[in-house]
Amino acid sequence: MRSRQRMFAAVMRLLLKCLRLGRRRRFKLLRQAEQLWHYGHLCLRSLLYNSFTNGDVVLDSLFEPVYWLVDHVTRWFGVVFVALVIGLTSSIVAIVYICLLPLILQTYTPAWICWHLAYGHWNLIMIVFHYYMAITTSPGHPPQAKDDLTGVSICRKCIAPKPARTHHCSICNRCVLKMDHHCPWLNNCVGHYNHRYFFSFCLFMTLGCIYCSISGWEMFRDAYAAIERMKLLEKERLQVAANQTYYQTPPPTFTFRQRAFHKSVVYLWVLCSSVALALGALTLWHAALITRGETSIERHINKKERQRLQKKGKVFRNPYSYGGWDNWKVFLGVDVPRHWLTRVLLPSPHLPHGTGLSWDLPTCVTKQRTPLLAI
């Protein structure tokens, strides 16, 4: 009996020792985990600490994977977007020539026929010319040798000279002179040497879509009503065919050519109206930027700079803005009055003012600009 009590007491003492040892180890592990957490937190804060960090920097860091994905998708699908633009534009031109032009020649007066032929072909030539030039013209890149430039910074990504108004394109992986943005529909950057081509393409494409939408409104209404009538007659024909016995399928109410004609007119009007709204808004946006002498990137930079100087009681002045009218003359390359015809209303491959490396006062500017950023 005593031996059993001794054995039971020994077992209980062993269990108590194990429990104490396990509790000590558990507390020790918790203390080690807490120390590792504080140490990792301190290391992370010491590595990421920056006195200039704000909400915008944090948001950009969070969206960095999204930017990477967009950059790579845009880089590889640029050719697809260009082919899509060419295909859609070609389909509209084919519908106009095959379906609408014969109808215009049969029903319109000679004066209206001359107007449509002249304006339509002029608009088409301007669209094709500026789109081709926007795709094939290089936006401009700074030279790699720093000896050729003075007063420039160094790009952090390509470690190369970075003149004023130059920005790095993550899709092209190069610095671009006076960069506005990378356009996937051009598969090219919009910069110093092709900015005018890009804006002119947007403008004339918008005008062409508006022209097609207004000119084809009556045809669209008739074609839409005809399609609805086709659906109704087709439904009635199927109901009659279900109640009667035919050895052959009844002939269609409308021919294939009639169906194709009406659907093509509806397709033309819907596509042109949609593009006119979307591209028209983009064109107005860029027109406002050109009026202020800014690019899309510079708008965000100038906005932050304006807010920063406003807190100090100063006023921001854009050093690259010469006034609304002069900004347009510099952008379009209008030096003399006849250039409004030869360089704006007609296809012209003339180069923009300046080299994109320095920004001297153009000869077409009538007044001096404010040389200071803030006063």
Automatic annotation (TrEMBL):
It is a multi-pass membrane protein. The keyword RNA-binding does not apply. GO terms for cellular component: membrane. Residues 153-300 form the Palmitoyltransferase DHHC domain. The chain crosses the membrane at residues 76-100, 112-133, 197-220, 266-288. It is found in: Membrane. Pfam families: DHHC (PF01529). Keywords: Acyltransferase, Membrane, Transferase, Transmembrane, Transmembrane helix. Signal peptide: none annotated. PROSITE patterns: DHHC. It comes from the Eukaryota. Its main location: membrane. It is an enzyme of class 2 (transferase). One of its GO terms (molecular function) is protein-cysteine S-palmitoyltransferase activity. Its EC number is 2.3.1.225. The keyword Transferase applies. It catalyses: L-cysteinyl-[protein] + hexadecanoyl-CoA = S-hexadecanoyl-L-cysteinyl-[protein] + CoA. The DHHC domain is required for palmitoyltransferase activity. Belongs to the DHHC palmitoyltransferase family. This is Palmitoyltransferase.
